[in-house]
Amino acid sequence: MNEGEVLDRSVSKVEVTGLEARHYDLLMNVITGGTYPFFIRRVVRDMHVQPQDHILILGSGTGRNACLMHRYLSAEGRIVGLDIGEEMLTQARRRCQGISNVTFEQRRAEAELPYQGDFDRVFMSFVLHGFVQEDRLGIVRNAYRTLKPGGALQILDYAHFDPARSGLLIRTIFGRLECPLAADFARRDWEAILGARGFGRFEAQHYYFGYVRLLTAHKVSGSAD
Length: 225
Hints:
By secondary structure, this protein is α/β, with parallel strands linked by helices.
C-alpha cells in the first residue's frame, strides 16, 4: 500500500468507549498475559524522561502512562494528556488527582492544537496505528509544531513488518482483533515518513519479540507539511 492511500475511517478503533473504556487497563493486562504493567514501566524507563521535561501525550487513555512518567519529573516538569473520550478522561483525572503538574484535556490528536514549540516530548502509545494515513500525517504535523527544536516524538506502536507474512498468532491478532489500519501502519516505513517531515536522529527499542517498537524521532529541520 502506498503512502497516499486512504482506508475507510469507519474501521478505526481509536476511540474506546463503554465497557472497554471502563475496564481498559484490565483488558490490556489480560491480552498481554499479565505482562503489560512490567512492559510499560520498561518503556517509560527507555524514554529517558528528564526532570524538567514538558511532555504532551496524544491519546492519554486512563492516565497510567502519565502517572508513570510523572515519577521522573521535578516540580519544573509537566505533562499534558489529550484524549477524546469522556470515560478515559474521567479515569485519568481520578488516577492523577492531586498531581498539580499533570493535566488532561479533551482534544482530538489530528485536529489543530493550540501549542507551538511548547514541549520537549510528544508521546503516543498504540494510538497512531488507529488512524487513516491522512490523519496520521496530521498528527505528525501537530507533533512537529508542538515540539521545541530538538524535541523528541516518541511513538510506542507496532514495528515495521508485514503482518500477512508473520506467524499464525500475529496473523490472528491482526486479522481478528485489530482493525485493518493496524496492518497498514506496520507495513509503512515510519523512519522514512518522519524523515521527510523534519524529523531525524532516530532511535528504536523493540519489545514483544520485535513486533512492538518505541521509535524516537527528534525535530531537526525542515517542515512537517
